[in-house]
Every structure is written in C-alpha cells, then in structure tokens.
Amino acid sequence: MRILISPLDWGLGHASRSAAVVKHLLAHHNEVLLAGSGDSLQLLQSEFPHLPTVNLSSFSPWVPSWLPLPLAITLQLPYFFFCILREHMALRRVVREHNIDMVISDNRYGLYSSSCPTAIITHQLSPIPWTSCPALIRHVVSWGIARLLSKFNFCIVPDFPDHRLAGSLSTASCRVKSRLFYVGPLSRYAEYKVKNAPLDIYSLHIITGPRKTRREYESSLNAPLTQPLTTHDAPSVLIGGIDNNNPNYNCYPNASAPEIAHFIQRAQHVYSHSGYTTIMDLYILNALDRAVLTPTKGQAEQVYLASLLAEKTMPDAQ
Questions:
Q1: Cβ-contact 125, 145 below 8 angstroms
Q2: 3-state secondary structure of 201
Q3: Nearest C-alpha neighbor of 125 from the set 148, 145, 97
Q4: Contact 33, 101 (CB under 8 A)
Q5: Amino acid 219: pLDDT
Q6: Which runs of consecutive H residues, i.e. helices, occur in the chain?
Q7: Cβ pair 53, 34 in contact under 8 A
Q8: Which residues contact 31 (CB under 8 A, 6 or more apart)?
Q9: Can you name the residues that pair with 106 across neighbouring β-strands?
Q10: Among 71, 49, 56, which residue's Cα sits nearest to residue 299?
Q11: How far apart are CA 275 and CA 286, in angstroms?
Q12: In whole numbers, what is the pLDDT of the chain averaged over residues?
C-alpha cells in the first residue's frame, strides 16, 4: 500500500510519535509518503531521508504569553476551521496526484477523504478537564471533537484501554463513529531500549514544544540552581536547544533518535515539559520515575498530565 503520513506542525511531539508509525509501516513493506510543514516535517525528513515528501501546511496557533491557551484557541476558531477546510481540499489533490491508498494523520482534522481510508492519531478524545469550565461548554466541545473524529474511518489512540497515561483525555465523552483502536504508547525510541544502562549522566534537559517555548525554557537554565556541572562530577546534557550557549551543559541541538534514547536511559534526573509524547517516550524507556516534568505555561493539558502523573505510580514498560 502507498500510505501518506502527516503530523500536525505544533512542536515536535506529533512528528516524533508519527515516526514510530512510519517505522512500523516500512517494516511491513508499505510505501510511505511524508506530508507536512515546518519543524515537524524536518524531523521526519531527518529520520527518513530516503522517503518522498510533499508540503502540506497545517494549523499553527498563535499563543501569546499574556493570554491563556484555551482563550487564545477559542479566539482562533474561525481560522482553525478554515485550516481544516484548506487541508481537506489540498489532500484531494495529493491523493489524486500520488495515488494514495490510505492516509494517516496526527491531530490533523482536515485529512479525511472519500477517495481512500483515513485514520487519525490522537489521545484527545475529550476536552481538557478545566475545573472552572461550565459543564455545558465542555459538552459542546466534546460533541465537536466527536464530530471531527467521526469523519475518519479509524481513530488510533496512543494509550492503553484503561487510559493509564492520558487519563480522561483518551476517554470519549461523546460517541465517535470511527473505529477506535487503543494501541498503547507510541515512541520512536522503542527500538533503542536497553537493559541495565549505567546512570552516568547527572541530569538531562529535554527541550520540547514550539520554538518560542523552547527558547524560554533554554533561557531559564541560566539560573544558578540549574548549573549542575559546578557541583557534580557527572556530566549534564541539554538536547533540543536553540541557542545552546550554556557552558554548564553538553549541548546536542540536533541529537538523533538513538542518541536521545541513549541519554534518557543513562540520566539520573530527566527534566522536561509534561507533553504527552514526552510522557510516552519516558514510559517506554522506563524513565518516568526519574523525571521531573513541568507544564508549559498556559497549556492546560500539560498541567493536567503533570498532576495525573504525580498521583500515579507507573509500572515499568515491558
């Protein structure tokens, strides 16, 4: 089969977990075409330089630091639905020109088609459980999410059926007509997992999210309490940075997947944001118990996931 893979271009998490799907498809002798834009597409291109690509721009929200994320997204809903329509129309051309047999997208609601089967990867079956949000609004949002997901033939949920990692996010509040498949956590690092790795790195900082967020996180590492090399003999590592000008860290701005998996498994302490893809990666590599995950400012989902993990003791991945 010739299958098109297209992740959302908002941070690198969607592309990272899509890479795990690409590896699976290639192992089963499928043809894969990569589609997307920005940093997300670049990550997939670096991981699979031999695969053909096509540009397919996606919704990239404007998130000012002075405005709560839910409000910022609400104000951009007209543009969001315009982007869904735009990418749906663009997909028609791509499917026709490249003879696509199936489309798999990651959180891109416009990539459904009547010409071939389509699947969407998402852990967001229900809205973020905002404690201050009125029940009516939450129900309307749940209904809207179900309507969008129901346009696809399949919905691939990267969580366990008991919703172990994503909590209520991966539980459908309203009926989704597409077939739901709970496939467990997806991670491009799974194949690099080793047993009994030496914990010879003191701390590992993984910078994730959109470029602005990554720059802010990196700048915060200049604080005195985050300069570990001055007090510890073991090295400290920084990956995913933009400026990479902190002399207290061994910086790897363009670390490969094997390198990142190698660092995670050797780190005594792992620091990062509580994005869902990061949580899946750490779970797969049995590093959640060594992780300190903080939510990105203004992102309610990450606040929820961080609090969820604080309340649970996760068993090691097999």
A1: yes
A2: strand
A3: 145
A4: no
A5: 65
A6: 13-27, 38-47, 69-75, 77-98, 135-149, 211-220, 257-266, 276-284, 300-311
A7: yes
A8: 1, 2, 3
A9: 7, 121
A10: 71
A11: 17
A12: 86
pLDDT at position 147, please? 94
The SS3 of residue 49 is: coil
pLDDT tens readout for residues 6-48: 999 887 899 999 999 999 999 999 999 999 998 899 999 999 9
Range list of H helices, 174-267 = 211-220, 257-266
Residue 157 phi, psi dihedral angles, 5° rounding: -105, 115
State the chain's maximal CA–CA distance in angstroms: 61
Determine the 3-state secondary structure of 187 from DSSP: coil
CA distances (Å), 56 to each of 33, 78, 86, 87, 160, in order?
A: 12, 20, 10, 7, 30
Alpha-carbon torsion angle 53, 59, 60, 63, nearest 10: -170
Tokens representing residue 98 in the block: 């490249």
Please work out, in degrees rounded to the nearest 5, the angle formed at the alpha carbon of residue 22 by the alpha carbons of 164 and 81: 75
**pLDDT category of residue 76 using cuts at 50, 70 and 90:** confident
CA distance 124 to 156: 11
Helix or strand or coil: residue 261? Answer: helix
Give the contacts of 129 (CB within 8 A, at least 6 positions apart). Answer: 138, 168, 304
